[in-house]
Every structure is written in structure tokens, then in C-alpha cells.
Amino acid sequence: MIVPVMLAFFAGMVTPLIVFGIRRRWGKYFMEYLQDSLDAFGNGDYSLRMYEYLRRGFNREIANSFNQMTSRIETVVDELSAERDVLEHILHNMTTGIIYITRGGTIEMVNEAAQLMFRKPLEHWTKQDHWSLFRNYHLGAAIDNALLFGTPWQSELNLRDTQTVLIRLVPVPSKSKTAMHGEVAFDVLMLCNDVTEFRRLERMRSEFVANVSHELKTPIAAIRGFAETLLDDEAPAEVQKQFLQTIYDESNRMNALVSDLLELSRLEAEEHRIQLLTVPLMDVVERALDRLTQVALARQIQLELEPFEPVNVWAEDDLLLQVFLNLMSNAIHYTPSGGKVTIRCEILVDRVKVHVIDTGIGIAPEHLDRLFERFYRVNRDRSRASGGTGLGLSIVKHIVTALGGEVGVESEVGKGSDFWFTLSRMSRLPEDKSLSMGGE
Ligand SMILES: Nc1ncnc2c1ncn2[C@@H]1O[C@H](COP(=O)(O)OP(=O)(O)OP(=O)(O)O)[C@@H](O)[C@H]1O
Ligand SMILES: [Mg+2]
């Protein structure tokens, strides 16, 4: 009897104690679990969520709040890192060089364009002082000024003699915690744009204008001089006729120059509007031969066309004709009488290479590189005396490039020259199917 009473007493007294103890233990586990979760979260594991244990002592509300918080923060962090990725892509693929300098004067960020412009790899930039990087007094002083006083600056800088870079310094008010109370601090955003090509074009343009004026001045001076003499003097009829002839020749020269210039500017303006069509090469060659046979005959020069298989090229026939006329008239012009001018069309797999070969005076190697430049003439006086403007070859190059081809020349003084250009070939002949692309 006494035993069940004791058992009941024992159960009644001890069970609550045990339950209380277990609850406390579970409460302790929960606190440890929460602590671990917070630690992991603090270390950047934003995807962490707390499991819900169906135990007493497990505080579901706290776990839920924790989970809500981590889920929200995970979303925000994802959004921010996606935004950061986009910005990084933009920065790294920009052609503008970007360098971020912090208020202490050290480089915080540099993009690839800037690394390339200054020819320094990333390791040379990170946390470096700007003075040790740029080593340019004006730029260094301007950066310091921008850092200290927030003064913006802009100037061009020549790098390695070959590159001109436009640099802009944009001061950015710094929120750095280390800024002294009341002191305004600035970071500096340095933007660098490569303006080399722009400056080169500007220089070319002004050189071109100077050249044109110079070329026009000579015939104008001659015409004026002879006209004045004719007005003043009672010269014999024969001399008068000679002067008038000179005036006529000079005006022709001016006319040729002006037409060439107009042609060049028309080509430049219409380059993007050229209609490329399938043109039978032979038709154009024949038109050119028709136009120049008489000229060659008059100068006692043999004009020969080497036979070639019919082929179509991708071109604009009037422009292509102009290329032939320019090269062939040069060949006739710079070949002494008794010489020979040959047209040869090499048919390659995907291109046609046209040669205009003469047995003329030839060109010394030092001139070959510059021959296709505007107004370039090997022998200025000789070319000028014969009415040459020095624009023919630059027109040729312009047209061939616009048609997608290349031009070139091989020459030997006293032996002759071989001016060549390529064109895209259109219809392939059946036997070419066995040839590999790009082969000749
Ligand atoms: N076949 C050639 N043989 C030798 N020299 C040549 C030949 N073709 C061109 N040249 C040289 O190249 C220079 C430039 O040729 P280009 O055709 O551009 O000008 P040009 O013949 O002087 O004048 P134009 O603009 O009236 O043609 C010539 O002045 C000449 O010195
Ligand atoms: Mg010429």
C-alpha cells in the first residue's frame, strides 16, 4: 500500500522537476542554435535559415523573425551584387579609362581601358600613390588640387609620344569616416579619353588645306603673271600665243586639281552609299582599254591585256573604271616611248588580283610607302610639269578600300612598276570547289 502512495508522491514531485529541467536544456539548446546561426549569418552565409523544431523551449517567433530577416537581407544582397556586376561589366568594357583616387591620394579602382592607355597592369595600380604612378608634375599637382580643394581640371597629355589622352578630373565629395570634423574631403574620379585619332585627323585636315592652297597658288600665280604681261606689253603675236597657251595649260591643271578634289570629297561623302553589284571584270577592262588605246598609241607604248577567264567581281563599275584609268594612265605616263604596259588579272579562290605592269622609270623603295598619300609625287617638278596633281593614287586607294580590297605596288628604278589591287570575286568556277578557302 505504501509503495504506490510513494510512487504517486514521487511522480507528482519529480515529473515537474524533470520537465522543467528538460525545458531549460531545450531553451539552452535553442540559445546555442540561435547563437550559431547569428555567427554564420555574420560571416556572410545569407542563405541560412533556422529549422523549426517541434520542441518546447524552441522559440518559434524568434526563429521566424530570424528567417524573415535573413531572407530579406539575402534578397537585398543579391540585388546589390547583380547591380555591382552590371557596373563592373560597364566599367571594364568602356573605352574611356577610369581611375578612382581616394582622398589619401591612392588608387582605389582602375578599369582595363586605363591600364591599357598607361601601359601598366593592375598590380602596378592597386593602393599606389598617384605621384608614383603618373610621374607628371602638372597632372600630379592637378590631382592634389582636386583632392584638397575639389577643383576640377581638364587637359591633354601626351603618352609615349604616340598617344594623346584627354584627362578630366572630377572631384567627388568623400563620405570617409576619417574626414576631420568640418573638413570637406574629396575623392577624385579621373576620366581618360584617347584622342590620338581625332588629333591626327585634325592635323591631316589642316595639312590638306595647306597642300591644296599651295597647289592652287602655283597655277594662279602663273596665270596672273602671264595675263599681266599680256595686258602691259605690245608683245609680238607669237609670244602672245605662247603666253596664252601657258595660261590655257595652267587653267587645265587647276581644273584637273579641282575635279580630283571634288572626286575625293564625293567619294568620302558617298562611301557608305556605294552600291556593290556583280560586275563582269572584262567589261570594265575593255572600257578602260577603249579610253586609253589612243593615248598609248600617241606615246608609242604597247598596251597589252593578258587573257583571263571570265570572272565577276563585287564592285561598282564606274568606280572600278576610275581605278583602271588612273593606274593605266600613270603606267603610260611614267613609261618612256617604246615601253609596254600589261594588264594581268590573277583569279584566286575568293579574290581577283589585278596588276597594271609597266616597263617604265620605276620608283625608288623609299617612296613606296607614301605613294598613295594625297599630293605625294616622287618627282614633283616632273609630275607637275606634266599636269599631274598627285591625287590619282590616293583616289585609287580610296575606291579600292571602299570596295573591300587592297592596293599595293612593287617597283624597281629603271625597270618598271607593278601596281596591283584586289577585288572580291563573285561567281566561283566549278573547279574551285576542291580548293580550300584563302588559298591562292
Ligand atoms: N607607273 C608609275 N611609274 C612610276 N612612277 C609612278 C607610277 N605611278 C605613279 N608614280 C609616281 O607616283 C606619284 C603619284 O601618282 P598619282 O597618280 O597619285 O599622281 P600624279 O600622276 O602625279 O598626278 P594625277 O593626280 O594627275 O594622277 C606620281 O607623281 C609618280 O611620281
Ligand atoms: Mg596619276
Automatic annotation (TrEMBL):
One of its GO terms (biological process) is cellular response to phosphate starvation. Its main location: membrane. GO terms for molecular function: ATP binding; phosphoprotein phosphatase activity; phosphorelay sensor kinase activity. Keywords: ATP-binding, Cell membrane, Kinase, Membrane, Nucleotide-binding, Phosphoprotein, Transferase, Transmembrane, Transmembrane helix, Two-component regulatory system. It comes from the Bacteria. Residues 211-427 form the Histidine kinase domain. It is found in: Cell membrane. It catalyses: ATP + protein L-histidine = ADP + protein N-phospho-L-histidine. InterPro entries: BphY/WalK/GraS-like, HATPase_C_sf, HATPase_dom, His_kinase_dom, HisK_dim/P_dom, HisK_dim/P_sf, PAS-like_dom_sf, Sig_transdc_His_kin-like_C. GO terms for cellular component: plasma membrane. The chain crosses the membrane at residues 6-22. This is histidine kinase. It comes from Alicyclobacillus tolerans.
